[in-house]
Structures are given as structure tokens and as C-alpha cells.
Amino acid sequence: PKAENHLRFFTLNVAHGRRNLPATPYLRRRTAQRNLADIAETLKQLAPDVVALQEADGPSRWSGNFDHVATLASEAELDSHFRGEHQELRAPRFQISYGTALLSSRLLKDTLSITFEPTPPTFSKGFLVSAIEWPGEPEMQVDVVTVHLDFSRRSARRKQVAQMIAE
Questions:
Q1: Does 126 have pLDDT greater than 70?
Q2: Of 44, 51, 116, 125, which alpha carbon lies 20 to 30 A from 154's?
Q3: Cα four-point dihedral sign 93, 30, 23, 147
Q4: Contact 130, 84 (CB under 8 A)
Q5: How many whole angstroms separate alpha carbon 78 and alpha carbon 12?
Q6: Phi then psi dihedrals of residue 102, to 5 deg
Q7: CA 103 – CA 111 distance, rounded (Å)
Q8: Angle between the 68-75 and 29-46 helix axes, to the nearest 10 degrees?
Q9: CA distance 138 to 1
Q10: Among residues 131, 86, 80, 82, which one has the least CA distance to residue 110?
Q11: What are the strands of the beta sheet with 50-57, ordered from one edge?
Q12: What is the mean pLDDT of residues 126-155?
């Protein structure tokens, strides 16, 4: 149960709405919507104050061509949300848009999205930071962060963490 003067957090790599399906060039919109509805139902049951997401898509042809973050925020009834764009490709027949995101029952303030310096061959990653008021103490602000680090190399992760600290 929720307690006064506490914050509840939940974090999840939403994997572009795929759930446990293998990575494919295209995910049907209906499938992505169904998978996100299941996540939203879990969020409603757990009632976190802040949700940190990774691999959260904006309109992307490969994952149904709709904003996954706005959809999750609406369905989970989390009024404040922000998606940081860490990978974007706009081509005539193909578009990719994804990054990290925060959803919250509390107002997200002073939100900042940072894309890490490229670490080929993996796609861009990054982090998102925002301030929220501590429950019961509106004069106290805390920063919440969601981050997606390179999965393949420790050296890349070290560089990314150093960049995050510097920011």
C-alpha cells in the first residue's frame, strides 16, 4: 500500500512494445497496443508514483507507428509524462523514434533529455532526468532519472556513466 511521505518507483524496458517476441523489422500496431495495454494494467495495479522506461517508442514504423509513451501514460492514468528522444531516423518509407521516458502521477519539472555520445556499433542510448516534489513537502524537490546504457561493452557503459555524471 502507498504510504505518506514515500515515493514508489517502477522501471521497465518496454522493448519497443514487443513484449517477449523476437526482434523483427515490423511489429503490428494491434500487437504493440495489446502489449502496452497489459503493461498499463500492471501499472494501474501497482500504482507507482514514477515509472522509468527504456526503449520507449514515439511514432515508429517498426512498432506500429504511434506514440507508445503517450498511450501508456493515458491508459495507466499517469498524468505527467515525457519521452527523451535518443534515436531518431526519418526516411521516406521508414522512421524510428525511441528513447527513455518518465511517467508520473506527480508533475515532472525541469525535464532534461541527454543522448550519449555514439558508441558504434550499437544504437544511441541516453538518459532523462526530471524534478518532482517530495510527497507532503512541496518545498523539497528530488531528481528522478531513467537511463539506458549500452548493453554490449563495459567500456562504452563507463563512458556513458561518466557523461551522465558530467551532465
A1: yes
A2: 51
A3: positive
A4: no
A5: 15
A6: -125, 135
A7: 12
A8: 40
A9: 22
A10: 131
A11: 9-13, 50-57, 95-104, 80-90
A12: 95
CA 40 to chain centre: 13
Do β-strands 9-13 and 50-57 pair in parallel, antiparallel, or remain unpaired? Answer: parallel
Q: Residue 162: which residues within 8 A CB-CB, separation 6 or more?
A: none
Q: How many CA atoms lie within 13 A of 97 on its CB side?
A: 17
Three-state SS string over the chain comes to CCCCCCCCEEEEECHHHCCCCCCCCCCCHHHHHHHHHHHHHHHHHHCCCEEEEEEEECCCHHHCCCCHHHHHHHHCCCCEEEEEEEEEEECCCCEEEEEEEEEECCCCEEEEEEECCCCCCCCCCEEEEEEEEECCEEEEEEEEEEEECCCCCHHHHHHHHHHHHHC
* Percent of the chain with pLDDT strictly greater than 70: 98
Contact 5, 134 (CB under 8 A): yes
Total count of residues recorded for the chain: 167
Burial of 75 (0-12, 13-18, 19+ CB in 10 A): middle
What is residue 123's predicted lDDT score, i.e. its pLDDT? 85
Grid cell 524537490 is found at 141
